[in-house]
Amino acid sequence: MQPKINESLNQLLLVSGEKYLVEHAGGHDRLVIGVAVFHPLRKEPSVLIVQRAAHESFLPNVWELPGGHVESSDNTIIDAIVRETSEETGLVVTHVVGRFSDFVYTVPSQGETVRSTLQLNVAVLIHGIEGKDPDVKLNPDEHQKYAWIAESDLADYEMTDGMGKVVSNALEWGRENTHELILVT
C-alpha cells in the first residue's frame, strides 16, 4: 500500500534514489533515508529510535532512527521509506508528513575508499490500533532494542553526534508541526 504523501514532498520523494542523487545531491556516492516515526498516542512529540545490534561491525550498540540505503530495486524514495521502516521495525507507514534537515556523513568502504552519504530525513505516521502502543518488531540482524523518546530523553541514549542532531531536529520538527501529527479520518 502506498502511503499518503504531503503534497509538498511529491516531487522530491516520487523519484528514484539514483535520479535524486543526480539532480539534488551532487558529489555524494549514496543516498539513505532516516525515518522519524512519531508515536501516535503521546501529546509531546516522541520518535522511535533503534539500537544497532552488538555484532554490527560499524557502530555496534549505537542508537539511531530507523532507515537505510535507497536500493536500486526501490522505484521511488517512498518505496525505500516504506520498505526500510517495515524491515527494521515491522511498522507500516501510512503517511509521509514532512521532511527535516538532511545529514551528510562519510563511511569507510573497501580499502582506503571513503563514501560520502546523504541521509534524507522524513517524518512519518504509522498504521496502528486506536488507543494501543505501536507493535514494534525489530529485525535482530540489525537492531536489538527500541525506545520512544522525547527531547528530554536524548542524553540517555548513546548516539553519534550527527545522529543526536538528526533526532533532535526530528523532535523539533514535531513540536513545530504538531498539526501534521494528528490524523483527521
From TrEMBL:
Q: Which residues form a coiled coil?
A: none
* Alphabetized UniProt keyword annotations: Hydrolase
Known InterPro entries for this protein? Nudix_hydrolase (IPR020476), NUDIX_hydrolase-like_dom_sf (IPR015797), NUDIX_hydrolase_dom (IPR000086)
MF terms from GO for this chain are: hydrolase activity
**UniProt cross-references to PROSITE patterns, sorted A to Z:** NUDIX
Gene3D superfamilies annotated for this entry? Nucleoside Triphosphate Pyrophosphohydrolase
**Which PANTHER family does the UniProt entry name for this protein?**
ADP-RIBOSE PYROPHOSPHATASE, DIHYDRONEOPTERIN TRIPHOSPHATE DIPHOSPHATASE
- Protein name per Swiss-Prot or TrEMBL: Nudix hydrolase domain-containing protein
Organism expressing this protein natively: Rickenella mellea
